[in-house]
Amino acid sequence: MSGADALLAEAHRRGIELWADGASLRYRAPPGALTPDLREALRATKAEVLRVLADAAARPPAPAASRCRICGRAKFELAGRLPRCFVCDSAGFTPEAAGG
C-alpha cells in the first residue's frame, strides 16, 4: 500500500471526505478529525493523493455487485474476494460493524 493509500484509508476511518478540485485537495471532516499531523502528511503527499483520486475517478462505475457493502466504493482492489473495498479492508471495517 502506498503512502497515499494509507492516508486515504486513515481519512476514511476518521470520516474525512477528500476530493480533487483541479490542483487543489479539498476535504470535509467532522470536528477534530483532521489533526495537524494528518494535515501535514496530506500536504507532504498531495501530488500522490491527487493522482490516486484522479485514477479512481477515471474508472468506469462498477456494477452494484462489485461495490463495497460498507461504503459503496468499487471493490476492484480485492478482485471480489471480500464484500468490501480496499479502504474499508485497510481500515478493518466489516459489514457487520456497518450494520450490513
Descriptive overview:
With 100 residues, this protein is an alpha+beta fold. It has 2 domains: 3-58, Arc Repressor Mutant, subunit A (Orthogonal Bundle), CATH 1.10.10; 60-100, no CATH class. The chain has helices at 3-13, 36-44, 46-58, 86-91, and strands spanning 17-21, 24-28. The chain has a two-stranded antiparallel sheet. α1 (3-13) crosses α3 (46-58). The radius of gyration is 14 Å and the shape is globular.
Estimated structural class: alpha+beta
Count of alpha/pi helices: 4
Ranges with pLDDT <50 over ≥5 residues? 76-80
Summarize the amount of helix as a percent range.
25-40%
Shape: globular
CATH topology of the largest domain: Arc Repressor Mutant, subunit A
SSE string: HEEHHH
- Radius of gyration equals 14 Å
Number of strands: 2
For this structure, the quaternary state is: single chain
| CATH first level of the largest domain | Mainly Alpha
**How much of the polypeptide forms β-strand, as a percent range?**
5-15%
Query: What gap, in angstroms, lies between the N and C termini?
Result: 26 Å
Strand order, sheet with most strands? 1-2
Mean pLDDT over the residues:
75
CATH architecture of the largest domain: Orthogonal Bundle
Q: Summarize the main sheet.
A: 2 strands, antiparallel
Number of domains: 2
